[in-house]
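Slide 14.
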Amino acid sequence: MTSSPTRMERLTAVRPRLLSFARLHLRDNALAEDAVQEAIMAAIEKDASFAGRSGYETWVFGILKYKILDVMRYQKRQGRLQPLENESDDDAIDRQFQENGRWQHNARPASWGEPDRVFESERFWQVFDACMIALPESSARVFSLRELMGLSTEEICRELGIRENNCWVILHRARLRLRACLEQGWLKEETPC
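Slide 15: predicted structure.
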């Protein structure tokens, strides 16, 4: 009979994923290490407050989310958070669509199969992480805040000092780039020759 892992063992096991998540957002190894360390310390200190309404790892990721936002706010106050630059590849994105707004035939998204199976694939998440790292910093930051951390568009605009229409454009471009990267790095590997 095996005993279930202790919370400390679970924290140790999830630490690499926490670090990867923090690096995606902060793009700085030292800041990511600090944020993860603070999140783990907070999880240990607040262990008694874990109510079990979500998984333990999900709870720890929630703590990390706020630590990352704290770092970004601090950088903004110190003037070290780089303003989001305008993306310069509008033409490449526009070429994916016809005049009427529909996908070009050769740019139409491929089928990814059963979503639940895809999200359970470790290889998918490895490629996803690589694709996120390959995104321009501004695109990765906005996409991560919206899709991975669950912030509203209004919150993102307030945190980053951008306008709502700019936020939506960055999100659109990030999604298109991620789709293309995932199709290239993951779907092509998954399809049998």
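Speaker note: The first helix runs from residue 7 to 26.
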